[in-house]
Amino acid sequence: MKTPWLGQIGAGIEFDTTTVSWHPVYRTRLMARYLIGDNLSGFSFGLAVTF
Fold it and tell me: pTM here?
């Protein structure tokens, strides 16, 4: 990326899905992140599950 610095900030929320789902998924996590640097910026979103 060849930038002298990068900064990021993010947040996430986690749900316990054992009581509302019949699937073997124990937890579901949603994440959002913002990245900024010299001549660079962007968003990312993520989804994670625990079996």
Answer: 0.72
